[in-house]
Design brief:
The protein contains 9 helices and no strands. The protein is mainly α. It folds into 2 domains: about 55 residues, no CATH class; about 130 residues, no CATH class. The N and C termini lie far apart (about 90 Å).
């Protein structure tokens, strides 16, 4: 057997070994990909699987596409003045909830869209795309936006059923978690700015509605809220 033939056989065998190793590596990684998605998205992973009627592969394809589209997004930090304006608007919406819960929820929905846009996420006019991007970077709280958006649309008569006061209250409470997550202090904030801002917000929240727990009127009932 000539040297050339021997070399060719060695190359072929090496190629086969490399292909087999690559296939084994892909198989080994496949379960971890799902595990990584589940760790990254948390409850959003389970919600996506449920929306696909338990089809895990379809759900993971969707989540993977979200990461591919929005994973490289870098959130723009907010200036302290911007953050304070947004916080003041949210506090005003909370105060308005007692007398006009539907209008307050609609304002919370608009405010989340604006803040997300200011942080560099897709514009609020592209709700589904904005929601998908938020789910990649704020998976733990994104369902609050989904819920308050749905309730706001119901309140406007978009889907034919008006939500009750308790449903609106819970939606706004969940949305508050995402709002606070989006307003987290950036590295450009000084400790003084952060401390001053927190003190102002705590004072405003205490004075807004007596007896409130968790920044919202927990004691609110259907009898207390108007327009429900």
């Amino acid at each position: 057997m000539s040297t050339g033939v021997i070399i060719a056989l060695i190359v072929i065998v090496a190629a086969v070994v490399l292909v087999a190793a690559a296939l084994m590596l892909l198989r080994a990684r496949r379960p971890h990909a799902g595990g990584n998605l589940k760790r990254r998205f948390g409850p959003e992973y389970d919600r996506t699987v449920a929306r696909h009627d338990g089809d895990v592969k379809a759900a993971e394809r969707e989540l993977t596409e979200r990461v591919q589209r929005h994973g490289a997004l870098r959130e723009r930090p907010l200036e302290p003045a911007e953050r304070e304006r947004y916080e003041a608007r949210w506090a005003a919406a909370q105060e308005r909830f007692v007398d006009a819960p539907r209008e307050a929820v609609a304002e919370a929905d608009r405010l989340l869209a604006e803040v997300a846009g200011a942080r560099g996420f897709p514009d609020g006019g592209q709700y589904e795309e904005q929601l998908a991007a938020l789910s990649v970077h704020h998976a733990g709280h994104v369902d609050g936006y989904r819920r308050v958006h749905r309730v706001a649309r119901l309140g406007a008569g978009a889907d034919g059923g008006a939500p009750g006061t308790e449903e609106m209250r819970e939606a706004m409470l969940e949305a508050r978690a995402l709002f606070e997550d989006l307003l987290k202090a950036s590295a450009q904030d000084t400790g003084r700015h952060r401390a001053d801002r927190d003190e102002v917000r705590q004072t405003r929240d205490r004075e807004a509605v007596p007896g409130r727990r968790g920044h919202l009127p927990w004691g609110l009932t259907h009898r207390h809220a108007k327009g429900s």
